[in-house]
Amino acid sequence: MAQDKRTLFIKRRLRVRNKLRKVNSGRPRLSVHRSNKNISVQLIDDVAGTTLASASSMEKELGVFGKNNLEAAAKVGATIAERAKAAGVTEAQFDRGGFLFHGKIKALADAAREGGLKL
Asked: Keyword Ribosomal protein on this protein (predicted)?
């Protein structure tokens, strides 16, 4: 039975979220969202239900508004690593959602790791 792209995306997202739930060790979750024009990331504390830090390519100070490319993803990754350090977070679980781990998502994760965030 053929399934459309959206259904496959939702199945991947649920599978990733369930795996994260199983191995949750009290670490915050680094949740990534990618659209056609922008990329954004949040550092979420699931126990308290709060956002500890966030970064997006829509922020003016990053200078990559409206861009969804590797450069923008790397800048967003470096920014979230800085903000996580400021919030006192050194390690997190990487929640890629339903997105495949390559290209922009991989560039964001690599930049966050280079910034000192342990994923």
From this structure: yes
